Amino acid sequence: RNVSCVIGGVESEPVELVSSSEVLCVTPAGSVGRVSVGVSVGGRSADSLTTVEFEYVADASVIAVEPSTGPVHGGGVVTVRGENLDPVAECVFGGVGTAAEVVSSKEVLCTVPGSSVSGTVSVDVVGAGQAVVGVIGGEYEYVEAVHVTGLKPSYGPDVGGNIVQLIGGEYPPGSIAACMFGSKAASRGRRISASVVECVSPAHASG
Predict the structure, then answer these.
(1) How crowded is the C-beta side of 47, counted as CA atoms within 13 Å?
(2) Is 199 exposed, middle or buried (0-12, 13-18, 19+ CB in 10 A)?
(3) SS3 206
(4) What is the DSSP letter of 46?
(5) Is-contact 62 123, C-beta < 8 A?
(6) How many Å apart are CA 196 and CA 78, to the nearest integer?
(7) 10 Å Cβ neighbour count for 56?
(8) How far is residue 160's CA from residue 158's CA, in Å, rounded to a whole number?
(9) Cβ atoms within 10 A of the Cβ of 185, count?
(10) DSSP H or E stretch at residue 132
(11) 95: buried, middle or exposed (CB in 10 Å: 19+, 13-18, 0-12)?
(12) Which among 108, 101, 68, 76 is positioned nearest to 184, based on CA atoms?
């Protein structure tokens, strides 16, 4: 039988008839808001399914990822900034998804997944039950982990604000995006030498 979907009054093709009770449709372009869903069988007028609706939402877009660099083992929390991020359920780093915590329509928090290789990947956002949506300038760079052998000073107030030297090596020029204190990203790291980087400690609970 010739079956098609009618979404918001627009016939949708192609269609895959999965079974007598299930059909797959591709949504046509639409305006933000809810629309009714119907089916057309054998060219007959669409039979409206008044209890079923589809909601079009504004395209989400990624403008910036902060910090935009981190170690290949992942685990850090990044802030993804953009537009229309309210429906976002996941951030996708180079094809690997991770749950998103929505702060506002312009900001979400995501834990960076690990990567088997270093390099730059795109950062996409995914709405609940949706395909990947718009991306503008969303990138994250994985770098090889840099080992820290000492801190100076190694303690400070829980309100943060201390300048801390991270001693280790080798710190390649331009490779330090931020220092991680636990799961929190501090201010951008400043490379003093091949073995010393300075960061400002963030606020954190005692311990």
Answers:
(1) 7
(2) buried
(3) coil
(4) P
(5) yes
(6) 24
(7) 16
(8) 5
(9) 21
(10) strand 132-133
(11) exposed
(12) 76
Per-residue pLDDT of the chain (207 residues; tens, 9 = 90+): 577 788 888 887 666 777 777 888 888 888 888 888 888 776 665 555 445 888 887 777 788 888 888 888 888 888 888 888 877 788 889 889 888 898 998 998 999 999 988 889 988 888 765 555 555 558 898 877 777 888 888 888 888 888 898 888 677 666 655 677 776 655 667 888 888 888 888 888 888
DSSP-assigned letter for residue 134: -
Structure tokens given for 13:
């093709």
pTM to 2 decimals? 0.60
CB-count burial class (<10 Å; 0-12, 13-18, 19+) for 42: exposed
- What does each C-alpha distance from 140 to 36, 42, 78, 81, 182 come to in angstroms? 39, 49, 10, 13, 20
Q: Which residues pair with 110 in a beta bridge?
A: 78, 100
Beta carbons of 197 and 165 less than 8 angstroms apart: yes
Instruction: Give the start-to-end residue ranges of the domains of the chain.
Output: 3-56, 61-143, 148-200
Fold category of 61-143 in CATH: Immunoglobulin-like (2.60.40)
| The residue type at 81 | R
Per this entry, what is the length of the chain? 207
Are the CB atoms for 93 and 106 separated by under 8 Å?
no
* Token pair belonging to 19: 């079974």
| C-alpha span between 100 and 187 (Å, rounded) | 22
Joined tokens for residue 194 = 């091949």
